[in-house]
């Protein structure tokens, strides 16, 4: 696809919260605490609720690792059943093109390209004109090369 931009953002930490109460007030409170700490959140993904629980994943920059750990530890104090995972040193690869909107098969091409590079995908977020994937740093070079090959 012509005019596709592929960008990489390095030093990204993935935070995932499993089995938290499926309550939008809790989600709002989590992100308010993060904002109050001056932490910029980038990618956000929530799984469909499973009964009364859900899962939430989001990314922050590695520089905010210490601050985010303090916040999620306090969350766990109030919700002992909450399972928290943290993975730092990842990279976000974004594939952007205004022409993605209304063009079938773009996601298939992106996922095919990264599968050809045997990429370990940690998270996916999308919009009408952007597909972003979070990958381990070791996979970035091969994934980007494969995306350039398949998306041009």
Question: Could you describe the 3D structure shown?
Answer:
With 152 residues, the protein is an alpha+beta fold. It has two domains: 68 residues, ACT domain (Alpha-Beta Plaits); 78 residues, ACT domain (Alpha-Beta Plaits, 2-Layer Sandwich). 33% of the residues lie in helices and 37% in strands. The protein is built from four helices and six strands; from the N terminus they run βαββαβαββα. The relative contact order is 0.23.
List how many beta strands DSSP finds: 6
Note the total helix count: 4
Strand content: 35-45%
Which CATH architecture of the largest domain is right?
Answer: 2-Layer Sandwich
Strand/helix succession: EHEEHEHEEH
Round the Cα radius of gyration to an integer and report it. 17 Å
Set down the secondary structure blueprint:
Elements: E1 5-21, H1 24-36, E2 44-46, E3 53-61, H2 65-78, E4 83-96, H3 106-116, E5 121-126, E6 130-136, H4 140-151
Antiparallel strand pairs: 1-3, 1-4, 2-3, 4-6, 5-6
Offer a concise description of the structure.
This protein is α+β, with helices and mostly antiparallel strands and 152 residues long. The chain has 4 helices and 6 strands, in the order E-H-E-E-H-E-H-E-E-H.
Task: Supply the key terms.
single chain; 152 residues; Alpha-Beta Plaits; elongated
